[in-house]
Amino acid sequence: MRIARISCKGSPMSEIPKDLSYTKTHEWIDYDGDGTCTVGITDYAQSSLGDLVFVELPETGTKVGAGDAVAVVESVKAASDIYAPLDGEIAEINEQLEDSPELVNEDPFGEGWLFKINVSDPDAVENLLDADTYEGIVEDEED
Amino acid sequence: MAKRTPLYDAHVADDAKLVDFAGWDMPIDYGSQIAEHKAVRESAGMFDVSHMAVVDITGSESRAFLRRLLANDVAKIDEDGRALYTCMLNTRGGVIDDLIVYHLAGEHYRIVVNAATTEKDLAWLDSQARDFQVDIQHRQDLAIIAVQGPRGRDLAASVLDEDFAAAAMQLKPFRCASDGDRSVGRTGYTGEDGFELVLPADEAVSAWKKLRDTGVAPVGLGARDTLRLEAGLNLYGQDMDEDRTPLESGLAWTVAFKPAEREFVGRDALEHMREQGVGEKLVGLVLEGRGVMRSHSAVRAADSSVEEKQAEGEVTSGSYAPTLSRSIALARVPADWQARVEVCLRGKWQPARIVAYPFVRNGKSRIDD
Predict the structure, then answer these.
(1) What would the mean pLDDT of B54-79 be, rounded to a whole number?
(2) Is A12 touching B (CB cutoff 8 A)?
(3) Residue B208 and residue B218: Cα distance in Å, rounded?
(4) A13 close to B (CB below 8 A)
């Protein structure tokens, strides 16, 4: 999935794909329907942070709880914690980001994914935010 | 409402991300701070710095006034068309502001001061000018564009009037030329060659557009900060302030103690400090590992066991250096510290080393790996 940064004159708009789930802390979650979630940060989040220069990811196999700070993305401007959206275990991390953190800026919903979680309770996915609700949160923050 | 420079509409048209900076709506970046940084190091970039204040000082005693007002000595620029970097001090030797003074011609000097300190500076100038025959004018009708980078001068000259461009291209570093209200200095804040152009507002708008058309990248305040940090240039309010003297802030070289009879504001305090010894110094730091040092990160001597709150050093400016692909900083530490330190980043002490700065000059790293 390749999503360009879309903008119109004077008011950069961020992309919010309808088929993903979200958190209010700006992670996106793509559930594969079979126990595994892919997690990244949203276009709005990467745009707010600016150019990323370091990404620190958890070890594969780490047990995580929903809301735990499990990764750090650091931009020229600031460092920001990334939270696990669900309980589970880290199944895979995006090792490309070690050398190419800019992938998160260039393709936040695709090549710039951060990690995958084997979730312990798939039903909890239902409790995440849908795209419309997340869009409302972004609009509030922009005001 | 925040103030806007004459180039505001141009920034909006370029999709700039605008932020409040000292009461001005200014571009922080136009999409990618790192790409803008690299444009200046490798080719050319331009900055709208019209939020800074242009102040013209004229009158029969302008030279005498500035010799009293400024810690560096304008006698060094008696020849027309020279520029000088200097601090303006209070009586305690603290830095009210840092600025460049351009000797345009005869009794006409032009200073450019920081945006955040403009009101304070103007009040200070006014209070100090009482005993001098001088006229001080804040030129709010003028805008400033800095064009910086290895191709900066050539591209800038291509958009100026023929005669003005010819005069500009003759300039050596830290020289300036003027034409009516316009002035051009071969100065900057990036560690690259370039010009700083002061132009009437409407001319600035058309010059910006022409520069854009010749391929000069607009660059925001974000990259301005990483460029100046790589170049080892202090930022007012972070690396120096009213409670520190230039001697503690890596700026002793800008203070002209000679001739001894020149009584500039702050001289007594600086001489006293020199006799007593300067307890702290500003140093350059390079972080050994990953992570980014930030303003106010605590710094301690290597292999010590002090807590963050007891650390004796502090980062004054820290960031990621795009040219070096690692974090660099300016930090205030005890004067006797050498070589190795540790910096507290997100609760962990990380090794860093003290280095001489500038970190980068004319696009090249000056730091060993």
Answers:
(1) 98
(2) yes
(3) 9
(4) no
Contacts of A12 in chain B (CB under 8 A): 15, 17
Whose CA is closest to B211, among B14, B41, B52, B44?
B44
**How close A76 gets to chain B, by Cα (Å)?**
6
C-alpha neighbours within 13 Å on the C-beta side of residue B23: 9
| C-alpha B175 chain-centroid distance | 16
Which residues in chain B have their CB less than 8 angstroms from residue A7's CB? 15
pLDDT by residue (tens digit) across B301-355? 998 889 888 899 999 999 999 999 999 999 999 999 989 999 999 999 999 999 9
- Cα(B200)–Cα(B194) distance, integer angstroms: 20
Taking Cα atoms as reference points, which of B200, B204, B220 lies closest to residue B145? Answer: B204
Is any Cβ of chain A less than 8 angstroms from the Cβ of B232?
no
Read off the pLDDT band of B111 (50, 70, 90).
very high
B266: left (phi over 0), alpha (psi -120 to 50) or beta: left
Nearest of B29, B106, B97, B18 to residue B62 by alpha carbon: B106
In sequence order, what DSSP letters do the residues of B257-303 get, joined into one string?
A: --STT---TTHHHHHHHHHH---EEEEEEEESSSS---TT-EEEETT
Would you call B320 an interface residue with chain A, using a CB distance cutoff of 8 Å? yes
> Quick check: A40 and A49 in contact, CB under 8 A?
no
Give me the residue from A7, A10, A50 closest to B29, CB to CB: A50
pLDDT band (50, 70, 90) for residue A8 = very low
pLDDT, tens digit (0-9, with 9 covering 90-100), for A29-47? 999 999 999 999 999 999 9
Amino acid identity, residue A38?
T
- Give B133-148 pLDDT, tens digit per residue: 999 999 999 999 999 9
For Cα atoms B214, B216, B222, give the angle at the middle one, nearest 5 degrees: 165
What are the C-alpha distances in Å from B130 to residues B124, B135, B136? Answer: 11, 10, 11
Give the pLDDT band of residue A14 (cuts 50, 70, 90): confident
Which position has the token pair 């300036």?
B176
Closest CA of chain A from B291, distance in Å:
7
Read off the pTM: 0.92
Taking a C-beta distance cutoff of 8 angstroms, is the pair A76, A55 a contact?
no
Residue of B nearest to A80 (CA): B346
The answer, yes or no, to whether residue A9 has pLDDT greater than 50, is no
